């Protein structure tokens, strides 16, 4: 799915992830739907905030791999701003932002980044293992 690199595009991507998971048997308010929707929101917000290039969209891909593992991938066009999957540091309590990847690292079983093949940019991905809805 392709979304505009705007806050509206990020909100829409989260809603569509939740809808798609519901259609796949992971109902709204289930652990899988809640967790992956939140991960989608954080990765999409990062793509808009840190990966945005004027006139370029971000891409989101949701899939089921290896049985009951759900994987989300968010691709943007900024290669020079690549998060590190090591243990993200928690920002000082007075900071209003900087906790997105900390949330992703705590909700996902695995996450990481890979270069975007054949084009500038990167893909940030995360996986969770879940039971059927």
What are the main properties of this structure?
133 residues; alpha+beta; five-stranded antiparallel beta sheet; 5 strands
Structural account:
The protein has a five-stranded antiparallel β-sheet. 33% of the residues lie in helices and 24% in strands. The radius of gyration is 14 Å and the shape is globular. With 133 residues, the chain is an alpha+beta fold. The two termini are 23 Å apart. It is built from three helices and five strands, in the order E-H-H-E-E-H-E-E.
Question: Which helices and strands, and how do they pair?
Answer:
Blueprint (H helix, E strand, L loop, with lengths): L1 E2 L3 H17 L7 H19 L8 E8 L3 E8 L23 H8 L2 E6 L6 E8 L4
Antiparallel strand pairs: 1-2, 2-3, 3-5, 4-5
In short:
The protein is of the alpha+beta class. Helix content is 33%, strand content 24%.
**Structural class determined from secondary elements:** alpha+beta
Shape: globular
Q: How many strands appear in the DSSP assignment?
A: 5
Number of helices: 3
Strand/helix succession:
EHHEEHEE
Largest sheet: 5 strands, antiparallel
Low-confidence stretches: none
Beta-strand share of residues: 15-25%
**End-to-end separation:** 23 Å
Strand order of the largest sheet: 1-2-3-5-4
Portion in helices: 25-40%
- For this structure, the quaternary state is single chain
**What would you report as the Rg, rounded to the nearest angstrom?**
14 Å
């Amino acid at each position: 799915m392709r979304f505009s690199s705007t806050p509206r595009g990020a909100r829409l991507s989260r809603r569509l992830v939740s809808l798609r998971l519901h259609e796949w048997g992971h109902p709204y308010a289930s652990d899988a739907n809640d967790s992956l929707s939140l991960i989608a929101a954080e990765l999409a917000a990062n793509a808009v905030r840190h990966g945005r290039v004027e006139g370029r969209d971000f891409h989101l891909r949701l899939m089921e791999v290896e049985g009951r593992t759900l994987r989300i991938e968010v691709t943007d066009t900024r290669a020079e701003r690549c998060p590190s999957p090591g243990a993200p540091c928690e920002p000082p309590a007075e900071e209003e932002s900087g906790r997105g990847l900390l949330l992703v690292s705590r909700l996902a079983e695995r996450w990481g980044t890979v270069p975007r093949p054949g084009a500038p940019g990167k893909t940030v991905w995360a996986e969770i293992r879940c039971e059927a809805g």
